[in-house]
Amino acid sequence: MTKENTENYISSVSRNRYKCGNHEKTLIWAADIESTTTVKLSTTGGHVWDASYRLFDFLNYFFEDEDFTNKKVNILELGAGCGWLGLNLAKNLRNVSQVCLTEQVNGGAMEHLVLNCETAYERYSHMRDSVHVCGCDWTHYADDASPVLKNPVVESTSDENSQLEFCEWKGEMLSKDSKWDFVIGADLVYNDIGVHLLPCVIRSHLREGSKMVYAHTRGRFEHYDIDFFENLTAQGLRFREMREPGVPSPPPSPPPLTEVW
């Protein structure tokens, strides 16, 4: 799933009504759990990205087709960041068996995610039984990547004045062998780790018949789209673009080296 022209899309979506062209539908979910953001992290996990809002609305529209409400499904979120997407998903899916929110263990992101979860539990106590948090180090999947990243780098924030927080995570780590009914994520490809290792992580956690729904912003970084899609194929994964009725397909990713700076 790709995200393009987000502002135009969001203008046609309310929290209880979707309208695009001749297509109109009442939306059931409410995204009323707010996640505290912060710039005091050395990761991108302190911010709720537009792709997360886009993915929530997409799942809201299609949740009946995916049968989220009638099955005890297990959902894994990769790169949960502040937790906004996964927490709002769990709040609306009261029949869900488990929602696991994962984030990298460096830079204080896990502690910030846990804080937002605890705040949500105080308001919606039923989520304490269905939502849990795990660390997930994508570099542990590097043996399956090609090329293997020998010296992965830690993400860095664009805010030069932000205070870096490096905390050792002592909580649960996601097992590489765990399988999930649905895997979700939003805008996780912004460096070489995402390009090469995210496809390995996805493949590792999908069982036969399960799927990932991923909101991806095309063209954020030159060449990354092409390499990422090629790596998905190399991992034996099949993928296709998904969108609501009436939403136009975004333009294709530009071929490499079309612009010279």
Q: What this model shows, in words?
A:
The chain is an alpha/beta fold and 261 residues long. It has 7 helices and 8 strands. It has helices at residues 6-10, 50-66, 84-92, 109-123, 127-130, 192-205, 224-234; strands at residues 2-3, 17-20, 23-26, 74-77, 98-103, 131-135, 180-186, 206-217. The strands form 2 sheets. Strands 1-8-7-4-5-6 form a 6-stranded parallel sheet. Strands 2-3 form a two-stranded antiparallel sheet. β4 (74-77), α3 (84-92) and β5 form a beta-alpha-beta unit. α2 (50-66) runs parallel beside α3 and α6 runs parallel beside α7. The two termini are 30 Å apart.
By secondary-structure content and strand pairing, the structural class works out as alpha/beta
Number of helices in the DSSP assignment: 7
Q: Give the strand line-up of the largest sheet.
A: 1-8-7-4-5-6
> Average pLDDT across residues?
77
